[in-house]
Amino acid sequence: xxxxxxxxxxxxxxxxxxxxxxxxxxxxxxxxxxxxxxxxxxxxxxxxxxxxxxxxxxxxxxxxxxxxxxxxxxxxxxxxxxxxxxxxxxxxxxxxxxxxxxxxxxxxxxxxxxxxxxxxxxxxxxxxxxxxxxxxxxxxxxxxxxxxxxxxxxxxxxx
Length: 159
Known about the structure:
By secondary structure, the protein is mainly alpha-helical. It has one domain (24-63, 72-155). It has helices spanning 17-23, 28-39, 43-46, 49-59, 73-96, 119-127, 142-155; strands at residues 106-107, 116-117, 131-132, 138-139. The strands form two sheets. It has a two-stranded antiparallel sheet. Strands 3-4 form a two-stranded antiparallel ribbon. Strand 1 (106-107) and strand 2 form a beta hairpin. Helix 2 (28-39) packs across helix 6 (119-127) and helix 6 crosses helix 7. The longest helix is centred in the middle third of the chain and has 24 residues, at 73-96. The radius of gyration is 18 Å and the shape is globular. The protein starts with 16 loop residues before the first helix and ends with a helix.
């Protein structure tokens, strides 16, 4: 068996970051918890990345005031990648909410710049494939996402 070249690794953490983010499995409930954590924040600090991240990490039960044991480095890396994947998916969803085909799924919000996402967005956004946009960001294909939204709403009886 041929040895890997020096400096190369087959460990998952060595895969390209975008591929790792795309491959993270997110549950719809985690997306909902993420959104609720942000909704519960003071709007003045909601845009602060560190404050938002801490709120989400606490809501997911990953950080408690009484936590004494150190987190295993592999578990810490997996949590970081999951949090990053959720942030990327939320940003990709936000790119879609103003498109005409998705307006019916928006929910009223006290902050017009931050519309609440209906659960359909969160369910579909948790599993829909992310694609690399021309600008290098990850996004959802709007037509594929719309098809998945329709399928989801028909499956749960709302479409």
